[in-house]
Amino acid sequence: MALFYVPDLASAHILPEEESQHAVKVLRLQVGDAIEVVDGVGGFYKAKITNPHPKHCGFEITDTVLEHGKRNYKLHIAIAPTKNIERLEWFIEKATEIGIDEITPIVCRYSERKIIKAERLEKIIVSAAKQSVKAYFPTLNPLCTFDELMKKHQASKKFIAHCYEEDKRLLQTECSNSTDVLILIGPEGDFSKEEVQKALFAGFAPVSLGNSRLRTETAGVVACCTVAIQNS
């Protein structure tokens, strides 16, 4: 059954223009056809088409499920955008499919990319959430610097994954039964030693994601999977 995203169901039961066009022009839905709708904040709705207009397709809700697929933990990953933006897009797509609450792009000392197109990344989130039938969509926070994140972060458990040779515990042993987790993933050149020290001073625990040295986007997905598995 076709799934559609309507961010503001309280105002009107009308599909956004792009979704309307897909429903009417591509899927050729007619009056009475059944659809499913999510609002991105936990609402999952069964509905039927009432007005198959290609720009503002109307629908009527027939069944409502709130907090659909709600997880027992909150995950926030702050990650440095990769030089090849397609790798960051891949991370965002896969993290959304797995389940994540917040994504913050961060600019670090060794970052090679300091600009992102948030609108495109938001579209990737919506597409991935719909594909994986998620009623909760992650929040994409504005790009910020590492130091800015240090000033405004909030989480009960905070980790920084880096590649320096020092005593680190595996993330999987540290994040079990966690309700609120923030994980920092650095750029291709890793965090600077100064950034690592700032994070430790701010209460972040250093963690390893395994024996292999991972690409930035791979590390992000591994972190996301690890938290999901340990709290499932």
Structural account:
- The chain has 232 residues and is α/β, with parallel strands linked by helices.
- The chain folds into 2 domains: 3-65, Hypothetical PUA domain-like, domain 1 (Ribosomal Protein L25, Chain P, Beta Barrel); 74-230, 3-Layer(aba) Sandwich (Alpha/beta knot).
- The protein is 31% helix and 25% strand.
- The strands form 2 sheets. Strands 5, 6, 7, 8, 9, 10, 11 and 12 form an 8-stranded parallel beta sheet that branches. A 4-stranded mixed beta sheet has the order 1-2-3-4.
- Strand 5, helix 2 and strand 6 form a beta-alpha-beta unit.
- Helix 2 packs parallel to helix 3 and helix 2 (85-98) packs parallel to helix 7 (216-230).
- The longest helix is centred in the C-terminal third of the chain and has 15 residues, at 216-230.
Indicate the topology.
Blueprint: E1 3-5, H1 17-26, E2 34-38, E3 44-51, E4 58-65, E5 74-79, H2 85-98, E6 102-107, H3 118-131, E7 139-140, E8 144-145, H4 146-152, E9 157-161, E10 169-170, H5 171-174, E11 180-185, H6 193-201, E12 205-208, H7 216-230
Helix pairs in contact: 2-3, 2-7
